[in-house]
Amino acid sequence: MADGREHDGPEQVPSRQRRRFPGISSRAYEHPADRSALVALRKLSGFDTVFKALSGLLPERSLRLLFLSDSVRVSDRQFAHLNDMLRDACYILDLEKVPPMYVTQDPRPNAMCIGLDEPIIVVTTGLVELLDEEEMRAVVGHEVGHALSGHAVYRTILLFLTSLAVRVAWIPLGNFAIMAIVTALREWFRKSELSADRAGLLVGQDLQASMRGLMKIAGGNHLHEMNVDAFLEQAEEYESGGDLRDSVLKILNVLPRSHPFTTVRAAELKEWAGSRDYQRLMDGHYPRRDEDKDTSVRDSFRESASAYASQVKSSKDPLMKLVSDLTGGAGDLGDRMRRGFGGFTGSAPKPPGGPETPGAPGTSDAPGDRPPRGDV
């Protein structure tokens, strides 16, 4: 646990003293969009009853029996090093009931937290074999963060609805309605993944390990061939490169996904790790679970809206810059519209009458002028 003990694992890394967060509320690490949705759902009268009633329709019992019969349950006698990590993560985040964890044979690196009545955590052999101990600790913390936030319920519903959409694909309107719900749930779940990444960092308290884990998920077990800074430069290029057409393609690419792109997750986590909110949390100043019932839905939505507005304003994505220009009344908007798609690139428009001059507003001569987005 967080007491300095060492654990057996694929790669032995000495354990460290890490801070514990007694009574921590999941609101402490949740992404604003994730938090506002969860607060609203928790405030709905009879919400838990409705979803418990759905348990008869959802394949939860079948999934539990499947993992019990065809996977390996983590314990003191099986995958003991993972069991230590699991108990350690629950201790740090003060999750009283340790959820069962299973290792299932699958070469693809993956992990999930599902369940309506009680969450269960599943990790694949591909993931266990890919990550070292500290990287795996962040992943286990990520899944425990899902459990603490109550994400397992909605993840299970998303799995069910995705499966249902395939079965009713022959019904025109029925499939359309279900896919509309699935699309909305995926948008929320992508934000919940950012929340869980933060929980993983709170458990591991090793940003470099979290970054390495994400980089390995993207490129495999070839750390000697990869570079953290170069990996994060990809996120920078992805966000700011191209024109309006690329922005549309980014949206189309991400819509079917339940997870954000890996480089984006790495950049988001690095940015949060350098924030004042993270530092205050590590100093012991964070919302407590016993205060959750007093949380205002209106305040949560206001925080979410503020976060989105800030994201749009600071984004270098061409489409987001267009939205910012529309709301801010940028003077060059008409000219950029006349130039068509090519006018909405990630770079600032050149001043008329010649090439850009060093030091001109909106230009940069030194490579170091662009702030780094983070490490992997």
Question: N-to-C SSE series?
Answer: HHHEHEEEHHHHHHHHHHHH
What's the overall average pLDDT, rounded?
73
Give, in spatial order, the strands making up the sheet with the most strands. 1-2-4-3
Number of H- or I-type helical stretches: 16
**Global geometry:** globular
Largest sheet: 4 strands, mixed
Low-confidence stretches are: 3-14, 344-376
Number of strands: 4
Q: What share of residues are in beta strands?
A: under 5%
What is the structural class? mainly alpha
End-to-end gap: 25 Å
How much helix is in the residues? Answer: 55-70%
- Work out the oligomeric state of the chains in this entry: single chain
Describe the structure.
The chain has 376 residues and is mainly α. Helices cover 55% and strands 4% of the residues. The chain is built from 16 helices and four strands. The protein has helices at residues 32-43, 47-54, 60-70, 80-92, 125-130, 133-149, 151-167, 172-204, 207-219, 228-240, 244-254, 262-273, 276-282, 297-314, 318-328, 333-338, and strands spanning 72-73, 101-104, 111-114, 120-124. The protein has a four-stranded mixed beta sheet with strand order 1-2-4-3, with helices on both faces. Helix 4 crosses helix 6 (133-149). It starts with 31 loop residues before the first helix and ends in a 38-residue tail after the last helix. The model is unreliable at 3-14 and 344-376 (pLDDT under 50).
